[in-house]
């Protein structure tokens, strides 16, 4: 019988989250801080990021902010160093930052394809590489860590008009499994999560993109199409995702690695 604490409590854990100034990343930061973690919020949106840490601190949470463009390796080195300086460790990385560009394939430029892959795939590679270096170093106690990569249902099934986004999110899924296989012996857990449409700026854009592709632009029709194809009958909330991120960050998930957690109200099951 292991002596590990298997609760969802995150007291004593240090977490770095990318794209944490708004949307899913912000909700994850708030929830994980409330669960006791020290959270380094990072984003390219500095004003929103600073506001976010103020509101977490007002509620008694431990949080700091560092500007981080996930495509920039130097930014990653600085953000990891800032996390180690502020909180003396790194236990959890949430690779959340992402962009979505939906277009009929024949209209997608190579620049758009590369931008989507630079942020959604290369950003995850850089973050995972630098976070694991910190997690396995003797300075960090060498006790391992948890890496949680935001993929999407679009990383599991093909969606017309979303080929570039599907390719990027599919890459995140298999990258996560390969890294889980490579670093399991060092107690590094790596999992991907796969939200359906979640109510954020990106989620609204995705609904509009579906509406443009299928209905000539009517947002309500796009929304109803998604809801009607979702067994639970609604669009997801950021809290639906943040709860599962808390689970994967916690010791309750200590035997879970290389898996994919689908949070989509069942849309990919039908
Ligand atoms: N909302 C959805 O419907 C949905 C569904 C499935 C997966 N996802 C994934 O969840 C993650 C979060 O999505 P969201 O809905 O909160 O999106 P969002 O657009 O609301 O927020 C994304 C955040 O990422 C940041 N970001 C963008 N480019 C960056 C860069 N180069 N470096 C650092 N930060 C950058 C933005 O500033 C923003 O704060 C993304 O990876 C997205 O692909 C979202």
Question: What descriptors fit this protein?
Answer:
270 residues, alpha/beta, 46% helix, binds nicotinamide-adenine-dinucleotide
Radius of gyration: 18 Å
Indicate the low-confidence ranges by residue numbers: none
The overall number of domains is 2
Biggest sheet overview = 7 strands, parallel
- The best one-word shape is globular
CATH architecture of the largest domain: 3-Layer(aba) Sandwich
At the fourth level of CATH, the homologous superfamily of the largest domain is NAD(P)-binding Rossmann-like Domain
Tell me the CATH topology of the largest domain: Rossmann fold
Average pLDDT number: 96
Instruction: State the secondary-structure class.
Output: alpha/beta
Percent helix among the residues? Answer: 40-55%
Beta strand count: 7
CATH class descriptor name of the largest domain: Alpha Beta
For the largest sheet, list the strands in their spatial order.
3-2-1-4-5-6-7
| Secondary-structure element series | EHEHEHEHEHEHHHE
Sheet-strand content, in percent, reads: 5-15%
């Amino acid at each position: 019988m292991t002596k590990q604490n298997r609760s969802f409590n995150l007291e004593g854990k240090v977490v770095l989250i990318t794209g944490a100034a708004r949307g899913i990343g912000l909700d994850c930061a708030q929830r994980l801080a409330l669960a006791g973690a020290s959270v380094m919020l990072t984003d390219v949106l500095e004003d929103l990021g600073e506001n976010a840490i103020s509101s977490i601190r007002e509620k008694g949470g431990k949080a700091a902010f560092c500007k981080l463009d996930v495509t920039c390796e130097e930014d990653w080195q600085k953000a990891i160093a800032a996390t180690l300086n502020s909180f003396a460790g790194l236990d959890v990385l949430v690779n959340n930052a992402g962009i979505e560009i939906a277009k009929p394939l024949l209209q997608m430029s190579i620049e758009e394809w590369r931008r989507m892959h630079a942020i959604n795939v290369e950003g995850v590679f850089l973050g995972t590489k630098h976070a694991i270096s910190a997690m396995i170093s003797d300075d960090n106690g060498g006790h391992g860590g948890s890496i949680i990569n935001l993929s999407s249902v679009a990383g599991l099934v093909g969606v017309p008009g979303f080929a570039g986004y599907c390719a990027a999110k599919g890459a995140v899924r298999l990258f996560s499994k390969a890294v889980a296989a490579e670093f399991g012996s060092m107690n590094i857990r790596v999992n991907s999560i796969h939200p359906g449409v979640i109510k954020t700026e990106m989620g609204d854009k995705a609904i509009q993109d579906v509406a443009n592709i299928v209905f000539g632009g009517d947002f309500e029709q796009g929304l109803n199409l998604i809801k009607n194809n979702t067994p639970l009958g609604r669009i997801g909330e950021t809290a639906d995702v943040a709860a599962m991120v808390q689970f994967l960050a916690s010791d309750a998930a200590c035997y879970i690695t290389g898996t994919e957690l689908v949070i989509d109200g069942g849309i990919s099951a039908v």
